[in-house]
Please model this.
Amino acid sequence: MTGEQIIFLIVALFTLGSALMVVTTRNLIHAALWLVATLFGVAVIYALLNAGFMAVVQVVVYIGAIAILFIFAVMLTRKDLRDNTPQTNKNWWAGALVAVLTFAGLVFTLQGWSGFSKTAAAIPSGFDAISQLGEQLTSPAAYVLPFEVASVLLLAALVGAVYVAFNKK
Amino acid sequence: MNFWNDPLKVAATWLEGIFTGWGMDAVLAHVLVVFLGVFLLVTILMVLDIFLVWIERKVVARFQDRIGPNRLGPFGLIQPFADIIKLIIKEDTTPDGADKVVYNLAPILSMMSVLILWAVVPLAPVMLGIDLNVGVLFLIAAGAIGTLSIIMAGWSSNNKFAMIGGFRQVAVMVAFEVPMLAMLMIPTIFASSMNMNAIIEAQNIWYFIISPLGALIFLVAAIAELGRAPFDLAEGESELVAGFNIEYSGMKFGMFYAGELLHAFTFGGFWAILFFGGYRFFGLEQVSPFLAILILVIKAMVGYWVIMWVKYTMMRIRIDQMLGFNWKFLTPLSFALVLVTALMNTLLRGADSWLYVTGMFLSNVVVGWIALEIARSVARRERERLEGPTKVVEAQH
Model:
């Protein structure tokens, strides 16, 4: 087992463990903080995959914006932060079944894939992933249209939120 | 290659040689040497932090026409050590009903979010923690952890003042992240790289001269991010006692305080790196890496001094003024500036260097002037709406 595998296993266990804590803990703020830990674990996995840009963006967007917003929303809307209602309903077995089947399906599909047991090829020196990403996102031959559509969608959501919250005088 | 030209590499090779000579695995020896390097950097920073307390107290004393600490040792230099002993032996209190784990984690995260920034600071051409190709974005990511630590401190203290202070501070930090991110794009456009070292290498002319407005907005956003006056409404003593750190005592409070000072110094350093050429100074950085570090530290100290200058001469602003200033003025202005800079950069790319610098400088001046004119006319209309038409009073002699 290489050092990288050991680090991956530790990080993956940490991420899954904190994800489990998000749904089992009773205190909503603790759940939000465990969610931050989960998202941070995902950022570390991006970094292990040599995707530094994705790792940093994960921290900026998910921890710096979304998780903070979650915490704000919980603090501003709830008087009692503890949740006393049962955490599952009577359909829990159906959810568990779907989860297990999905996992089994993924494992089954990936086992037929030839790249499943290969180690990744080393990245050639001088390869600049971030400029490649930038070119792909702005080149008409690649992904400029989906990128622009996504930005327009986000802008529309922003304008819509302002319109809903706007206090008409 | 000798010690004076590349001290980090020479020291690392030497240490790794010693460790492998003891029969240690090569990979393990490398990890250990890297760990020791991080440990050394953090230790130097923390020791520097102790002296920053002294510098801060001396400078504020001068601004307030006092002498400052002058009893212990020459120029009061031993004073910060006495302060630290006091902080360590103080009673460590935890309020009733506090969330213990989160309460204790917050000061650690706060200090960590500052120390982690130094991973991407190039101290000299050959001396830097990690040559990250997204170094500029790393600055914002570390800021996100700082925001999180403050909301944790505010919530876990079980104190209304702490909670309000935490809310205010997070509102400031989330708001001013936007103009700061936009201003980080300006050196990125000029250097066509987000790597800190590449940005410094590309600064044959300081970016402060090419984009003075960008440097100014970055400084304003940095001061807001630090939570210092005029944006220190999170710790408004007259209304909130101390803000988010009200319940912390002893060294836990010390962590917040030292973190703030080191953060101010660090942002002085980033201001120098992004807009004042970092470790470069008329080719002196080529002489020795140690000289380069000295240049960077002096530039960072100058930036830190400017931040202190603003802090001790400005009054605190209200939260609605802060939000209005950011969302209605600074954010549109910084987006307009990024657009104009990108456009001018494309137009003038092939042009003569003098034309490039003049064009960029003039476009900055024009953008700033238009923004101020719009702000002034809006403010005048607002005033007239509230008070009726104002009479222009001629100066009487």
Remarks:
- Residues 1-89 of chain B form one domain.
